[in-house]
């Protein structure tokens, strides 16, 4: 059984996380289709399960994976300077290029506002969104005739992500990540505090969906810290699925869902037969960044698009942008993190019980 713990699986097996993240990014596009077109039907998951739309599930998957990998990065022997550089180089170059393209190429070519570049709204959109500390959604004269006028409805999650990076950094600086018992105490305290008082975490995460994805990230971190004692196997997965099914339609289903999704993510991460995908690039971030924009463009060009045709066409278009973003911006930026590696080898940081 020891060989089937989460830690041993990550150590000894090729994982499918790149493929899972790409599928999740495409699921976000599918999930947003009805919101963008303003037409039904809702996505299949929402129709069947009735709890949340598939795009929300996909974002939960992103945050579970991110919580695990980001916490692992903070515990790396390369140190916290490398951690900070890696996080900045992974998030910001692709984001800045996307926002620049949106404002100064797409927006400028599509706007119906005569004073577009002189509008304060344009510059607020640019600087607010490239900071990833807040989100702006609208540009003057752009997409104003569409059902949903937001330029990029997906950027909100990056604000939450960056705040969680900072929280992980703070926990690392304080030594919490090296002490399993302390981390676990804070983990359960955070959950209980949020459950007893839903307003408790609003100073960090104002909206309910922000708090939820932060919880999924925290669960991913919890799985990393406790990776040596978390067993991954079909029996446990079936029990969790049965529990979730038994709670469907009850107030407890949200709890069952929140436990099931992270376990399902890590179970599928080691499903055999998909390791070949890792030799390709990681296009998930680019698909996520450009997905909503591409959906708006398709609706603008083909206003009679169905949700299905919108999903197919915008997915192809978003993947084209993602391909260019990965090879021209993201991958070269990520490669620059090597300059922040320490010149000497530090002992690996391990968790303590």
From TrEMBL:
Domain of life: Bacteria
Stretches assigned to coiled coil: none
Limits of the Acyltransferase domain: 16-324
An example Gene Ontology molecular-function term: acyltransferase activity
Keyword terms: Acyltransferase, Membrane, Transferase, Transmembrane, Transmembrane helix
Pfam families for the chain: Acyl_transf_3 (PF01757)
Transmembrane segments: 49-70, 91-110, 122-143, 155-176, 182-201, 213-243, 255-276, 283-302, 308-329
Entry-linked PANTHER family: ACETYLTRANSFERASE (PTHR23028), ACYL_TRANSF_3 DOMAIN-CONTAINING PROTEIN (PTHR23028:SF53)
Protein name according to UniProt: Acyltransferase
